[in-house]
What does this fold into?
Amino acid sequence: MNIPFLDNWLKRHDGTRSTGLAAAVEVDPEGVAELLAECELLRVRVGERGLELDDSPASLAALDQLPPRWRDDPEELPWLGNDAGLYLGTVLVRSVAGALWHIWPSGQPVVRLASGREIDVVEAGLEWAMTGSPELSQVYSESAEG
It folds into this structure.
């Protein structure tokens, strides 16, 4: 996953690039959570359609109801899907007890639930952006239950 603004964040927090996102989660989990919650492209695009994302489970259902006009732009589609996944992860981390960000060795951010189950939220976001299924609210509900 390529997060262009991560370089600046890492330099601001430890002076080197070598720590990587996984180490940053260990050192500053709240800072990384804030970074992953930015989802700027998604927030701008849905804002243009009158929806403000408030990091709540209800906002995932509202997001699922938007007409998928982003599919008209194949260049933007993967970026928007990535943001949708990070947003799903943000909602999970902020509203499900024991959920936290975890970074796989590949650099992929996932949400680890208290049960130890890991949700590949970026993959879910990409699938949602490309096909509409599974709905983000459905992934949230299934994750929050167990």
About this structure: DSSP finds eight helices and three strands in the chain.
